[in-house]
Design goal:
globular
């Protein structure tokens, strides 16, 4: 209840409040016990201009069903030669990302997520950084060293 009130007052949820303090050790400690949402890489990107709304809805529903049966592969995004993993403190923040990515790519896609401890998710990935809540005004980049250690 207090957390929800603080979010209403500050516009930041619990994880964003810890991340915005700028203390890497405190953030790393918090992320060792606080789960985040990581999106699965979409199987297809659909051009909304080539389908009717009904066809798009059907294709996205089909895609969502297929994703639920597939093994989980985090969506690592490559941009300007750097690889990053989007991670979200809430499903609401992930929905914002999905909408903005659809606009940016001019494509629609089904998006599935996994709720994970971030340290477990980044271990096997080759990424340069994690972007916490991309497209949110409280977005934070967290560097990832080759051994999986996170830095700020």
């Amino acid at each position: 209840m207090i957390s929800g009130l603080l979010e209403l007052l500050t516009g930041r949820d619990d994880l964003e409040r810890v991340a915005c303090r700028g203390n890497s050790d405190q953030l790393a400690a918090y992320l060792r016990r606080r789960t985040v949402y990581v999106p699965q890489e979409p199987a297809r990107f659909l051009d909304p201009n080539t389908f009717t709304q009904e066809e798009l809805i059907g294709l996205i529903e089909q895609e969502a069903t297929e994703l639920s049966n597939d093994p989980f592969y985090p969506w690592v995004i490559e941009e300007e030669g750097r690889r990053w993993l989007p991670a979200f403190s809430s499903q609401k923040r992930m929905q914002t990302f999905s909408g903005e990515m659809s606009k940016e790519l001019n494509m629609v896609f089904a998006l599935k997520c996994g709720e994970v401890l971030l340290f477990n998710a980044i271990g096997p990935l080759e990424i340069d950084f994690v972007k916490l809540n991309p497209f949110s005004k409280n977005s934070v980049e967290i560097g990832v060293e080759s051994n999986g250690t996170m830095t700020r």
